[in-house]
Amino acid sequence: DAGVTQSPTHLIKTRGQQVTLRCSPKSGHDTVSWYQQALGQGPQFIFQYYEEEERQRGNFPDRFSGHQFPNYSSELNVNALLLGDSALYLCASSYYGQGAQGYTFGSGTRLTVV
Amino acid sequence: GQQLNQSPQSMFIQEGEDVSMNCTSSSIFNTWLWYKQEPGEGPVLLIALYKAGELTSNGRLTAQFGITRKDSFLNISASIPSDVGIYFCAGHNTNAGKSTFGDGTTLTVKP
Fold it and tell me: Which residues of A fall within a CB distance of 8 Å from B44?
C-alpha cells in the first residue's frame, strides 16, 4: 500500500519563474493538505483540498494556488517565485473529517529559488 | 494568528537519559499532536491527544494535553540513538481544518 507520493523530490528555479509540485495521496484518502516548511521551522499550512475544491487556506498570497483532480491527486502551483519561497513543501493526505491524527505526510519536495 | 512556542530548541543528551520537551500556545486547541521528522522525510505522528488533562503513552513516549488546552509536553524515557530527529508539536482545531506547528526540538543522542 503506497503512502503519499510527492514529485519531484528536488528542484531549482529562478526568481520570477513558476513551479508545479505534485502529490498522490495514500490509498483510500480523499483530502490533501499542503504545508511549507522553511529551514529550521515547523510546517506552515498553505491550503486544503477536498472534492476538488479549496476548503481551507492559510496566510499565503494568491501566488500560491492549487488543484485537486478526480482521482484525489493534487498540484501546488507557485507563480512569480521569490527567494523566500525556498523551502520543503509537504503534502499530507487524510480522510475528510478524520482530523489531523489521520494525516499521512509525504517526504516533500525541496524547492530552491536562486 | 495562532503561534506555538516549543522548547527547548535543541537537546544534546547521553543514551539512556530521559528527555522532556514542551509546547505552549496563546490559543486553545482541541487536539494536540506530537510528530518526529527525520532527514529527508515528512513528519510522522507519534501521539495524538484529544482531551484536556489526557496522558497518553506510546512505548517509551508519554505526552500530556494541558488542562488549560494551551499547552502539551512530551517525555521520552531511556533514550536510544534512533530517537535522534526533530520533534514537533502541533495544535489542531477540527473546524479550522489545519494544524499549527511549533518550530521543533532537535534531539541528539550520544551513544
Answer: 105
